[in-house]
Amino acid sequence: MTSPLKNDRFLRALRHEPVDRTPVWLMRQAGRYLPEYRATRKAAGSFLGMAKNPDIACEVTLQPLRRFDLDAAILFSDILTIPDAMGLGLYFVEGEGPKFERTVRSAADAERLGVPDMETELRYVMDAVRVIRRELGGSVPLIGFSGSPWTLACYMVEGGGSKDFARIKAMALNDPATLHRLLAVNTDAVIAYLAAQRAAGAQALQVFDTWGGVLSPAMYREFSLPYLQRIAHELERGDGAQRTPLILFGKGNAAYLSELADSGAEGVGVDWLVELGEAARRTQGKVALQGNLDPATLYGSADAIRHEVRRALDSYRDGNDGSREGHVFNLGHGMSPDMNPDHVAVLVDEVHGYSAR
Amino acid sequence: MTSPLKNDRFLRALRHEPVDRTPVWLMRQAGRYLPEYRATRKAAGSFLGMAKNPDIACEVTLQPLRRFDLDAAILFSDILTIPDAMGLGLYFVEGEGPKFERTVRSAADAERLGVPDMETELRYVMDAVRVIRRELGGSVPLIGFSGSPWTLACYMVEGGGSKDFARIKAMALNDPATLHRLLAVNTDAVIAYLAAQRAAGAQALQVFDTWGGVLSPAMYREFSLPYLQRIAHELERGDGAQRTPLILFGKGNAAYLSELADSGAEGVGVDWLVELGEAARRTQGKVALQGNLDPATLYGSADAIRHEVRRALDSYRDGNDGSREGHVFNLGHGMSPDMNPDHVAVLVDEVHGYSAR
Questions:
Q1: Stretch B65-71: mean pLDDT, rounded?
Q2: Is the dihedral of CA B331, B335, B336, B341 positive or negative?
Q3: Who's near B261: CB < 8 A, 6+ residues apart?
Q4: Pairing of β B97-100 and β B267-270
Q5: Strand partners, A289
Q6: pLDDT confidence bin for A255, thresholds 50/70/90
Q7: The complex's ipTM?
Q8: B17 Cβ partners below 8 Å, 6+ apart?
Q9: Using the 8-state DSSP alphabet, how is residue A208 labeled?
Q10: pLDDT tens digits for range B152-175
Q11: Helix or strand or coil: residue B29?
Q12: A25 Cα to chain B: minimum distance (Å)
């Protein structure tokens, strides 16, 4: 059923093996900045309609790979599929981001939550993984993903996006037991979800801890980090060269890089608020690093983009004992709808060209 | 004209002198969370109408001091008065934050900008300082303030708030000379503005670098830090015990604390993303530290607030060789309209009570 992998740079980098050039993919590489994505979305009607239809999810996953020489595909889906499958009722309001019909505010709310059944309640995700894996035909590896337990909890408690995370922080202060109950069931669900994506064909797995960086160090170490560590420990993902690598991405995680490097994950994704060389020094080769150009770099000219790409590549190498091994190039956060596809081509070209020298 | 200062804890802490208890004030302590503020605002009609009327600005500055045992007052004003006086046309849209009628997007736009005359174009600010200073009657010191050159530039280029700072980051990448021209005139204006507030009676000065933390380390060190350093060096503010202290507050400045400590400023304000003890270790007593409770702590119960206050006070002491000297207690960012005034009373009481032991 599955073809041998033609381009394994991404997986080799995650194993700290030599590569002919630094692999690159971009968070939210399938998205509204592509005219073909906008056309597909218009036809599909809605974001969730796309994510819940495996053929459409496959189509938009493949769109950026037809344009750019990217070294990995990432499943087109949403980070909030798990709480949706738990019954909270995910919906989107144009221009406002994701919302939930029902929130988790009390111990009783948290007690009602259970781990969804992956092959029924989240079957559309596993079907999308299977279709994409087949359609990729071994060209590049497919990344599956999930939101982190803390990040899922943020949306589940707040009921949507938030500027100050007042409700979940109040819960952390006033009723930490309920929050831990919520985080525990989220963690069980994330582990089952990632394992199911792996079984369906995902060749690497990423956890997005988008909102870990809004926490004080004490709160991060109580409410986000331990659950990331549990995922890294408990997620069964094979051994040796057959091991499916796990990447822990976190916005604002620079202060916790040494702890994340000791978590057992194969890779850590970092945002642009830390020099990559400094991140490499803090993680001491225990994990591969993924990142970390400021996405706004794509608003720069071609010359500026090439300059910033070279700086990031060299920074990593300088902090990694002169070696480019163990680096997956990426942005420090997702792409935006108003970005120019031509600039993505420049970025990918420069990553490959400069790192091959 | 001016009365002797009855409570000088705040100024003593900024000089690293012994205090009977740790001084405390709160960013945005005069604000919508107070019913009396909302009543004044309703009568005045608008935020800018309040800020531009010295008697009203004085009234709202004093409101929190009537309720709480705060150790400093801060001028009621906006961080964007300077670009408004430069002719950009500041206005507010309810629920959307500040906006400018005219933006700075080109070299020609930047060339047109000049330092406003402080006693004519910004006279309303200086008048407010004079009125507040008189009305305080020496009860507590008055803090004057300004936005940082980078933070002002963000609003001037974007034309308002921003999620991704795409326009100013594009300028940084594509036309850094224009951005440096803009930052230079902003810096000249900030220095003149703070000097004028000092001359009008402000007894301490704070620069708010609200958006420095959105920059990569290389960009922060090119576009924000050098201008903060120039303010600290060039702002004439007296000598010895008569010196008017300068506090550099920055969201997301944890990675730059040793550079900020060497800037020549008397104090550095930090957000909640770093342990205060760690901040103290990084600054080695070269500056006083101000902060750093997560404002969301005020959504917690009284017990939770007292616990977090004690943790912050002890963290500072542990990182400062066992001494509480050189600490000004504050939040890590401003207060929000939905906060409970009773919780502020708990916070202030606990800071004073616990630190006096």
A1: 98
A2: positive
A3: B268, B282, B283, B284, B286, B287
A4: unpaired
A5: A268, A327
A6: very high
A7: 0.96
A8: B325
A9: E
A10: 999 999 999 999 999 999 999 999
A11: coil
A12: 20
Does A100 reach chain B within 8 Å, measured CB to CB? no
Q: Which long-range contacts (CB under 8 A, 24 or more apart) does A134-139 make?
A: A134/A1, A134/A2, A134/A201, A135/A58, A135/A62, A136/A62, A136/A65, A136/A73, A137/A3, A138/A2, A138/A3, A138/A4, A138/A5, A138/A6, A139/A6, A139/A7, A139/A65
Q: What is the dihedral of CA A17, A22, A23, A27, to 10 degrees?
A: 120
Those residues with Cβ within 8 angstroms of residue B272's Cβ, 6 or more apart along the chain or in another chain: A216, B291, B292, B293, B294, B295, B331, B332, B333
* Tens-digit pLDDT profile for residues A66-125: 999 999 999 999 999 999 999 999 999 888 889 999 999 999 999 999 999 999 999 999
Q: Residues 6 or more apart from A141 whose CB is under 8 A from it?
A: A5, A7, A8, A10, A11, A72, A73, A203, A204
Contacts of A218 in chain B (CB under 8 A): 275, 311
Mean pLDDT of the region A241-268:
97
Which of the following is catalytic: B8, B71, B78, B127? Answer: B78
What DSSP string describes A241-290? GG---EEEEETT-GGGHHHHHTSS-SEEEE-TTS-HHHHHHHHTTSSEEE
Cβ atoms of A290 and A247 within 8 Å: the answer is yes
Which residues does residue B269 pair with via DSSP β-bridges, in sequence order?
B249, B290
User: What type of residue sits at position A19?
Assistant: V
Active site residue B133: no
pLDDT confidence of residue B9: 98
Closest CA to B255 of A68, A41, A257: A257
Over chain B, what is the mean pLDDT?
97
Q: Using the predicted structure, report yes or no on whether residue A350 has a pLDDT greater than 60.
A: yes
State the Cα–Cα distance between residues B275 and A34, nearest whole angstrom. 42
Write out chain A residues lying below 8 Å of B294, CB-based.
Answer: 169, 216, 219
CB contact under 8 A, A216 and B272: yes
- Residue of chain A whose Cα is closest to the Cα of B294: A216
Gap between the Cα atoms of B169 and A67, Å rounded:
26
Q: Is there a catalytic annotation at residue B281?
A: no
Give yes or no for a contact between B320 and B280, defined as CB atoms under 8 angstroms apart.
yes
Question: CA B193, CA B199: separation in Å to the nearest integer?
Answer: 10
Distance in Å, alpha carbon of B338 to nearest chain A alpha carbon: 10
Please state, in angstroms and rounded to a whole number, the distance separating the CA atoms of residues B283 and B272. Answer: 16
- Its pTM stands at 0.97
Distance CA B48, CA B195 (A): 23
User: Which element (helix H / strand E) includes A99?
Assistant: strand A97-100
Q: Structure tokens of A228?
A: 């990331």
How many whole angstroms separate alpha carbon A51 and alpha carbon A36?
16
Mean pLDDT within A291-314 = 98
Sign of CA dihedral B104, B107, B108, B112: positive
Element (H, E) at A33: none
Based on its alpha-carbon atoms, the radius of gyration of chain A, rounded to whole angstroms, reads 19
pLDDT in tens, B175-219: 999 999 999 999 999 999 999 999 999 999 999 999 999 999 999
Parallel/antiparallel/unpaired status of strands A327-331 and A288-293:
parallel
